[in-house]
Amino acid sequence: MTLTVYPAVDIRGGRAVRLARGQVDEETVYDDDPVAAALRFAEAGAQWLHVVDLDAAFAGRPRNRRVIADIVDATGVRVQASGGIRSMADVDESLGYGASRVVIGTMALEEPSFVAAAVAEHGDRVAVALDAEGTRLRARGWTTDAGDLFAALHHFTLLGVARFVSTDVARDGMLRGPNVARLRDVAESTTARVTASGGVSSLGDLRALATAHERVDAAIVGKALYAGRFTLPEALAAVAGHTT
Fold first, then answer.
1. Which of 80, 99, 41 lies closest to 235 in space, CA to CA?
2. How would you classify residue 176: left for phi > 0, otherwise alpha for psi between -120 and 50, otherwise beta?
3. Chain centre to alpha carbon of residue 149
4. Which one from 10, 53, 168, 172 is the annotated catalytic residue?
């Protein structure tokens, strides 16, 4: 299976931005129009986009959800939606706007029963975000401790979660390379698929992820693309010859 590359479109204040380690005071604006950013990725060959409502992630209230519909309409690309998913209504709304998958973060850690209900209703269209610093999970925009990574991984696997998005908080937006060793540990601890997030800085990093583990089958790439470390066609070509 070839690694799927998900270009990230993180939206804050109506603009496409990137944060360093999730800190709002370390924001770089890359485009005043997130739909235009998404369209460029689609035209470059993206099959999936990872769209994050950062305003909702920090405030707990959706502010950019309708942008999902605009991106889907403009690009025809599948969208994985994340940020501020706090209720079943949020899940339903995101899917209703056209998202192919919804990622639950904070509420998964604070109310695991919500995940069980969402998975029962929507199956593999629901993923769980496990954002960790070391082995400690972080929630509410990475501002609070939320327990042990591997304990949560075990619990959610038993609940039937089909995919985890595993982010190394310390590396996100820092262009320091992904934590491949921890991703292997995560993949070994579940039967679910794992999407790698955080730290990708080079084509070599993508090749390393493409051969990391059979269950690591996707990678979210943000800052490296926006900063011009490589292009999306180069990324897709780099992983095309590598299978897990």
1. 41
2. alpha
3. 16
4. 10
pTM score of the predicted model: 0.90
Of 53, 90, 131, 168, the catalytic one is 131
- pLDDT, mean of residues 123-133: 94
Helix, strand, coil in percent for the chain, rounding step 5 = 40, 30, 30
Fold classification of 4-239 is TIM Barrel (3.20.20)
Q: What is the 3-state secondary structure (H, E, C) of 136-163?
A: EEEECCCCEEEEEHHHHHHHHHHCCCCE
Is residue 131 part of the annotated active site? The answer reads yes
The one-letter amino acid at 242? H
The phi and psi torsions of 25 (rounded to 5 degrees) equal -85, 5
pLDDT, tens only, 12-25: 777 766 565 545 54
Chain-centroid distance of CA 163 in Å reads 11
Q: Which two three-digit tokens encode residue 185?
A: 């540990």
Is 53 one of the annotated active-site residues of the chain? no
DSSP SS3 for 211: coil
The domain limits of the chain are: 4-239
For 232, the token pair is: 């999306």
* Residues found in the chain: 244
Place of tokens 């590359």: 5
